[in-house]
Known about the structure:
2 domains
Amino acid sequence: MTTLPLAGVIGDPVAHSRSPCLHGHWLKHYGINGHYVPLHIRPEDFGDAVRMLPKMGFRGVNVTIPHKHDALGVADIVTPLADRIGAANTLTFTPEGIEADNTDAYGFAQNILASHSDWAPKIVALVGAGGASRAVIVALQDAGVEEIRLSNRTQARAEELAGDLGETITVVPWEHRSGMLDGCDTLINGTAMGMVGEPPLDLDLSALPKSAIVTDLVYVPLETPLLAAARARGNATVDGLGMLLHQGAPGFERWFGQRPEVDEALRRAVLG
Length: 272
């Protein structure tokens, strides 16, 4: 008797996650008889719960806030990429044990490359020094970036990130954040500012070259105040939804045996 392939997403909270809709669309589209479910697990139960999942027939899980760092500790195998980023968002249950990987850097890069295939970042302005920014910085470094200008409201956090991830990062004081846009080819908002219920990112775009690409990791709303302002002045913009969609593809392929496509039908399904 073959068991149905199972996967899911672990978070606390997890009800807001779009991942069940994302993977559910792919399962239906490819005619795969499997399930992808949300799993609300508290931090104190995380390790025990993850170790139980393979016994219940799970092939793997995505991991979201606040478990991405703890996912490294529960793993038997940590990929070099997850180790560099310092967090995992994808766990796969293999005969050798639990493998922890991070597909956020891949998702970020693919989201821009999908509409700008010649994107080759050299001088980048990044606002925010949270967990998502770690993956973004690694993606930029792997793409050959020469300088990342990083600004965060708490400067010590930006300096810690620069210390962890290398010499390509220049920390810019928060009060000088608008000036760091001069000469940049890419601007990235890695904060929650601009999300529904949050204040917009206060950033003067006048120094930003019109040729620069502007992208926001926020995807609710799809067009944030930053993206609207950038588009109005003639910059190319990339919304944050594609990062979510592309980061899900490697896990789906590992768990369900089908490399899925990120297309307009998927975007519509996830946006509801």
